[in-house]
């Protein structure tokens, strides 16, 4: 069965994973996010009940 022969695709798979993990991934991880998370205290907005005219 030719699909069980690892000779053609094993090198391509290993080369692509090496390229991704050694070259592309550090470049992607070096970007700084535009909106970094902040430590603001979460406040709940004050809501007033709606007065329905038919009740």
UniProtKB/TrEMBL annotation:
Keywords: ATP synthesis, CF(0), Hydrogen ion transport, Ion transport, Membrane, Mitochondrion, Transmembrane, Transmembrane helix, Transport. The chain crosses the membrane at residues 6-24. InterPro entries: ATP8_metazoa, ATPase_protein_8. One of its GO terms (cellular component) is mitochondrial membrane. It comes from the Eukaryota. One of its GO terms (biological process) is proton motive force-driven ATP synthesis. Coiled coil: none annotated. The keyword Zinc-finger does not apply. GO terms for molecular function: proton transmembrane transporter activity. Its main location: mitochondrion. Pfam families: ATP-synt_8. It is a single-pass membrane protein. It is found in: Mitochondrion membrane. Belongs to the ATPase protein 8 family. This is ATP synthase complex subunit 8. The gene is ATP8.
């Amino acid at each position: 069965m030719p699909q069980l022969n690892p000779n053609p695709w094993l090198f391509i798979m290993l080369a692509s994973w090496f390229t991704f993990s050694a070259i592309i991934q550090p470049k992607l991880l070096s970007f700084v996010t535009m909106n970094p998370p902040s430590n603001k205290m979460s406040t709940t907005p004050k809501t007033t009940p709606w007065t329905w005219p038919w009740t």
